[in-house]
Amino acid sequence: MNSMKIFVLAGILVALPLAASAQDSTPKKDTTAHAKPKTAAASSQKAPLKLVATIPLPDLKEGDFDHLSIDLEGKRLFVTAEENGKVQVFDTEKNELIHTIGDLKAPHSMLYRGDLKKLFVVDSDLGEVKVYNTTDYSLADTIKVREGADSSGYDPSTKYLYVVDGGKDAKMAEAYLDIIDTTAGKKVGEIKMDSDDVEAMAFDPNSSRMFVDIRGNSAVDVIDRDKRAVVAKWPVEGAKGLTTISFDPALHRLYIGGRQPAKLYVMDSDSGKIVTSMPAAPMVDDAGFSAAQKRIYFAGSEFTDVFEIKDADHLEKIGHVPTSFRAKTALVVPETNRLYVAVPKHGAKSAAIRVYETVL
């Protein structure tokens, strides 16, 4: 072997351990360390709603739905197809239509009393509250109210159902709250309002107060349920079309949905002061408040917005979820982590119930 070959070979032998040493000293990619931040980031960006089922309703004509009610024990969902004159009943395990109640004209709001196995349906055009046995869906009773009956609210402490009727839909100057004892199945009183357009209501479980959206006056009226009288009027400045209201007793806050402008308003339930507001989906008809999830599901046309409650004075919009035209009727069920959205027929698209998982 000549001297040149010996020199090259020696250089190679010397370089090998140096290269190995350099390779060992290079910082290795710690996949474990990097995986945790990535997972955390992905988790914080998860969509708050996940579509898990769509129940097609091809037999329905065009026209709005109105409200929904849940039977947790019986695993049923009740939906008023207002302009189709029907209440549709769904199996929430199989996600399928199981029954249709058809002897209605314009069903709006509902109350399901599981202890009685009865469904109370407010029918606007008939001016009635129809009561059905939910064991066989037969008509059990009819309670007469005024025409224009629409929204309603249930006080579990007295088992009274407060039904909005009269007003502009009945061509009357004022609307009323008819008070129905759902145990006795009869009307026991009424409260005359100073507007012809009254909407949703919410109840304070710790007092006799109830809060009512007065759409005609762009205000919230506070009613003493014991006195059956309005005790305060709180304007929502600049708002029109107030359609939803929920009460958060832990934070002393009211969450109010308006249409013009499309906003979610947060009101102090002790003073009536608006503490904040946020832009939201248009044409809202239902805004489900979940105290357990600290969220508000704000259903409007084309989108459902999801708001997270950070504290008494701060909300964060964490979702702007595409739905469908006039899909403004929805129900959140925190016990099963489900949000049901009623989608009306529009053009070539058939009506449907969309079932979303509420992702936490």
Mean pLDDT: 90
N-C termini distance: 74 Å
Overall outline: globular
Radius of gyration: 28 Å
Tally the beta strands: 28
Description:
By secondary structure, this protein is mainly β. The chain folds into two domains: 131 residues, Methylamine Dehydrogenase, Chain H (7 Propeller); 135 residues, Methylamine Dehydrogenase, Chain H. Helices cover 10% and strands 48% of the residues. It is built from two helices and 28 strands. The strands form seven sheets. Strands 1-28-27-26 form a four-stranded antiparallel sheet, with no helix packed on it. Strands 2-3-4-5 form a four-stranded antiparallel sheet, with no helix packed on it. β8 and β9 form a beta hairpin. The longest helix has 23 residues. The N terminus is likely disordered.
Task: Describe the secondary-structure layout.
Layout: H1 3-25, H2 31-44, E1 49-57, E2 68-71, E3 76-81, E4 86-91, E5 96-101, E6 107-113, E7 118-123, E8 128-133, E9 139-144, E10 152-155, E11 160-166, E12 175-181, E13 186-192, E14 201-203, E15 209-214, E16 219-224, E17 229-235, E18 244-248, E19 253-258, E20 263-268, E21 274-279, E22 286-290, E23 295-299, E24 303-311, E25 314-322, E26 329-333, E27 338-343, E28 351-358
Antiparallel strand pairs: 1-28, 2-3, 3-4, 4-5, 6-7, 7-8, 8-9, 10-11, 11-12, 12-13, 14-15, 15-16, 16-17, 18-19, 19-20, 20-21, 22-23, 23-24, 24-25, 26-27, 27-28
